[in-house]
Amino acid sequence: MKDVNKDLNLSVIKAFKLLDVYLNDKQAWGVRELAKKTGYNKTTTYRLLSTLEALDIVQKNDNDKYILGLKLFELGNLVSVHKSLRYYSRIPLENIAKEIKETVHFGVLNNSRVLYLNKVESPLGLKVSTQIGSSQDAYCTALGKVLLAFSSTDQISDYLKHVKLKTCTLNTIVSSDGLLTELKQIREKEYALDMEELELGLICIAIPVFNKDKKIVAGISVSGPSSRFKPENIQSYLSIIKKGAFEIEAHIRDYN
Amino acid sequence: MKDVNKDLNLSVIKAFKLLDVYLNDKQAWGVRELAKKTGYNKTTTYRLLSTLEALDIVQKNDNDKYILGLKLFELGNLVSVHKSLRYYSRIPLENIAKEIKETVHFGVLNNSRVLYLNKVESPLGLKVSTQIGSSQDAYCTALGKVLLAFSSTDQISDYLKHVKLKTCTLNTIVSSDGLLTELKQIREKEYALDMEELELGLICIAIPVFNKDKKIVAGISVSGPSSRFKPENIQSYLSIIKKGAFEIEAHIRDYN
DNA sequence: TAAAATCGTTTCATAATACGAAACACTGTT
DNA sequence: AACAGTGTTTCGTATTATGAAACGATTTTA
């Protein structure tokens, strides 16, 4: 809580840092639990929560623990950033999911992470399921790698400077050189694969979505269990995903 | 800004009241514009916006005006209230929309208003389109009336005490007695109609969704232009919507 | 059954912070 | 050249947030 900041409302910052707890642990919290998580005083936490509750930003559940309230749902749905991406991606994603029968994701790079803007889940029982609005490390997912690959060289070197590549599985790329080579190959092939790099048994294909200036704005990925991703399927999957990407690109030519 | 409140963080309240501006006017705002809208001092508004920008709650658009930021999108998608309603309503709503080819809405009563939790738009060019997360007065919509009708008598009389029934069209019910009679009929028929009460040319059918205790938890509505809502269609529409309601009810039996 | 350990909540003197008028820098218009 | 818009910074003052301690109510442990 040092004041390196110029001149900001500290209690507003505190309030949102408290809400940030919910980004990591999506559960209901008590006053003392949140006080411990945030490092705030118990009374401070209590006062913040009372304030947020009065505003319908948080609310108590059946066990008198705090959960995020409906006002945040209302505000979240008003966010106009990437709104056209979200809007125009829906139907193409559904078409892809209908053909391939695997979960389809649509995301952008945000704060060095993949932010999922949209998804359509596989109709099958065994499937990948990610929450819209959640984010994931970029280096160990196909979607993240394809978004990185077509970023500027400055952005890529910045990414490597600030993000630690951690081992998720035996296949995870953990060296900067390894990732740079991988990104170069992705640029050449115009698609990315995640062969169990994030999680064992999980395979993922991703392709970029460009605007009219050939600048990357988003990516589409299809993911599922390795048992269903045979090498002979990947090419046909790619052409189906590319068809969806073309549809989206047709609508967002003025996106920047 | 009177302190009738017990002991709350006033600047946190100010911050969210500022964000509330976006609920009414979904546009980009400058510092002075927001200061005028909120009644805050220009400097206060500037400091609040700088704080919120540092937290990614708002961000500047191309014209250096403030819009809601992606952090709100992330938080909004974490809201767990009504999450299962939103989840289990999706496919039934899509099936209804596919059959009827009109826009289908799914909503609950929240703060005396209809809050739209989900929607599927009509595939036709001329269609009703409402924003998920937005809300609407209850008394002049079919969805609102059906949600009111099956509320407790206390809630209904409370509603009539606090909400002013304003004329939207010639058909709007503006008297308390008129609305009470209408709600009684809705309880008997188990569905509600909005015959151009909110907007001329706009017709809407709504039915309730109950939990296992026969308590209302949500409602489904189908809306479209009056030219496409012939009296002879309404009965067949109703049976299609009811089928969807049954599907949802099967999944939410423990909802309260 | 008593004691201890939780929980959320309230109090209040003190320390910290938000406030806002005024001045400033910048841009585009008259 | 004067004016009318922006957003931004400064700084003394008035307001507000802070947190240790005490409180009441449950639940758990001895």
UniProtKB/TrEMBL annotation, chains A, B:
InterPro entries: GAF-like_dom_sf, HTH_MetabolicPath_Reg, Tscrpt_reg_IclR_C, Tscrpt_reg_IclR_N, WH-like_DNA-bd_sf, WH_DNA-bd_sf. The keyword Transcription applies. Keywords: DNA-binding, Transcription, Transcription regulation. Residues 71-254 form the IclR-ED domain. Residues 9-70 form the HTH iclR-type domain. Pfam families: HTH_IclR, IclR_C. This is IclR family transcriptional regulator. PANTHER family: HELIX-TURN-HELIX TRANSCRIPTIONAL REGULATOR, ICLR FAMILY, HTH-TYPE TRANSCRIPTIONAL REGULATOR RV1719. SMART domains: HTH_ICLR.
